[in-house]
Amino acid sequence: MPFAARWPYEVHLYPVQRVPDLPALAAPARAEFCELYVDLLRRFDRLFDRPAPYVSAWHQAPVRAGRADFALHLELFTIRRAPGKLKYLAGSESGMGAFANDITPEAAAEQLRRLG
After folding, report:
1. Does residue 4 surpass a pLDDT of 80?
2. What is the pLDDT of residues 27-51, one digit of tens each?
3. What mean pLDDT is reported for the chain?
4. b/e map 60-72, b = 16+ CB within 10 Å
5. What are phi and psi of 46, to 5 degrees?
6. CATH superfamily of the domain spanning 9-114
7. What pLDDT does 102 receive?
8. Among 15, 28, 65, 86, which residue carries the largest CB count within 10 Å?
9. Rounded to whole angstroms, how far apart are CA atoms 4 and 15?
10. Domain locations in the chain as residue ranges
11. What gap in Å lies between CA 79 and CA 113, rounded to an integer?
């Protein structure tokens, strides 16, 4: 969970070895990354005992230039904040980037850990 999560349940996943993109991962790390990704999706589903709507953003380096400036990582979050409740962005969140959540990142991380 990021320090200042924008969503109640948001995970950022980085490989241990810094690489610019998915093809640069060694085969074992690529396989583990896939397993972790599916595990996270299942944990999101178990949060509220139903399939969780989610947004998955894979960040990779551009193909030709500036590759050293980027690190492969996944940002994954669900738009659900509680059973039967979606997280809608308030004006301060949409307009100013000042996000507010009803759960701390630490509590959300602990909840996801227990669901593993």
Report:
1. no
2. 999 889 889 999 999 999 999 888 9
3. 88
4. bbeeeeeeeeeeb
5. -75, -20
6. HIT-like (3.30.428.10)
7. 80
8. 15
9. 20
10. 9-114
11. 19
Distance CA 89, CA 15 (A): 30
Kindly report each contact of residues 112-116 with a partner whose C-beta sits within 8 Å and lies 24 or more positions away, as own/partner.
112/1, 112/9, 112/11, 112/40, 112/43, 112/44, 112/47, 115/43, 115/46, 115/47, 116/39, 116/43
At which residue do the structure tokens 């969140």 appear? 93
Structural contact between residues 29 and 15, judged by C-beta atoms closer than 8 angstroms: yes
Closest CA to 8 of 74, 87, 110, 93: 87
pLDDT tens per residue across span 57-85: 999 998 888 888 889 999 999 999 888 88
Helices (H), 5-90: 27-47
Q: What is the pLDDT of residue 95?
A: 77
Helix (H) or strand (E) holding 51: none
Q: At 74, is the secondary structure helix, strand, or coil?
A: strand
